[in-house]
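Note to self: keep these together.
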Amino acid sequence: MNKNAPVQVVVLGGESATSDRNAFKIAAFLGADVRCVSITPTDLGDAHSIARQVPRCRCLITDAESLAKAADAMQPGVSGLRSLISSAEHVCIFGWQPTERHAAILQALSSGGLVGVQPQRDTHAAFHVAEGHRRWCGQFSGLSVKAADARKENVFVEGGGETGQSVMIQLGCEPFFVRTELGGTQVYFLASSELADLDQKVRRGTRPLDWFSRLVPLMMFLRGTLADGVWHNNRPQACFIIDDPLLKHCYGHFEFRRLMEAMRRQEFATCIAFIPWNYRRSRKEVAVLLRSCGMPYLCVHGCDHTGGEFSTRDVESLRGKAQLALDRMRSHSRSSGVPFDEVMVFPQGSFSVEALKALSSAGYLAAINTHLQPSTVPEGLELRDLLSVAVTRFADFPLFGRHYPDGLDDFALDLFLGKPALVVEHHGYFRNGYSALQSFVARLSALDERLEWTNPATICSRACLTRTAGDGDVYVQFYTRHFYMKNDGRQTRRYVLLRRQTGEGPSPSVTINGRVWNYELQDGNLEIRLLLEAEQTAEIKIISGEPDSTSPLCRQTPVYQAKVRVRRMLGEFRDNYVDTNRVLNGIVSIVRNYHARRKASGGIAPRPSKALALPRG
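Structure:
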């Protein structure tokens, strides 16, 4: 690397500043070459002496208070800050407070375009992302994102005159993230008073978008300025997953023929999360229909689909269920001719850490789930895990997230972070036909014109992030043990492939296109180096070093089998008859509302019928 080349990112701050550490974590998470520079009172002098402490860089990130302290010590005062930030091509300043010191800095660096910050008074305000800055805003361009708590947010107060500034994000009707130019340096003002801590523990059900203001604008700044130099995904993919249906013409409100007509019109992909217990119950004519079109695809949805069947911590039991589910799906594939993906969707979204280990042991490619937090570990994840393409903290096994089609903001964040857009719904989504599906698919596809619709196995086995280093090497972060990649460039390229490998036990072996390949273990990652010519592909397989062991048989007693059958029949009765009949559905709604009111008031209500209380998913 050229020693005279500028550092990618410099985080400027004071001693022991939490905000600086959080900025560093975000930049490092994106794969940037980042360095921290602290300015202490003993370092302060004139503007030029302070400026010399800041190395030449592409991006400078600092908080307003650090600049205020520097201005206090410099002889020119606030005007000397221009010299301080001139070492960077792009500067992002956050942490603004409604004080006179910060207002003076804001006015000086924005040439009077911004004169201060104030709290957002509209409690229902949402963030509105501008459309004209797609290089920075990416898939969020033109979208609105609901603020977690608008009352805790600041917004900028605009000054008079023409300053040439661009408002990239508004909160309500006020500017929140603003870009302007100052003497050849692009300056970005972020009204957020603090940044997210990626190491913060999160609870089950947490939405990463709750950190939007403290996270996404800074990521936009780094993505827009560093481009291919930080982790990104040039091949976004999507799939619409429908849970539970049997391979019959109709299941509740869902009809295969109508779905396939919609898919032909809009060229998108769907997948049926198929319950293995139903492996002997598929209609031949429906199987023929699926084979003729090659889709929708199938993946594995539990085993018996009983309540919490993958939430137990009994490893032997989990391995038996995982293997039985695969055996049933393979038997179904042989009899019906419909292939399936060895990808698990957990019933009701509940799973234990041991369940992920069981799936890994049984040879599954990945898991997809609405919840990313194990139900047995309330706070087992950090914010950075929710932002990763796949959670690999448990057994190094990849767990991908999915969302209901309630809006576009969750999917915009996933695509912005390089994740696949995985959608989930049930038969009730089609209660009023397929127009909602077609509308959502069109709006999701519009987020990114490169979006490719395909099946879960293809998505998981090609999921990766890439970045290009200063020497031209392409770094690739991937997640599954079976990974495909291609050199889409016109020249031969050197690649460094990285996959999390922290498990104990014997080291794995690696093959590329069938040949045994050398690798290194570095900082908890398996590191593979290879050279690919233009248009050349590589199939990477990571073979566990653990000795082969046959999964234990999943022994099911007659009583258990009878309970499963009753549960499945009740669930199908609910979906096919209760949900599709207005009278019955109305009665069920009344009963549910009654029980909800009794529970809320502290009264003792009779236990509801199991037929009405069966969980979905």
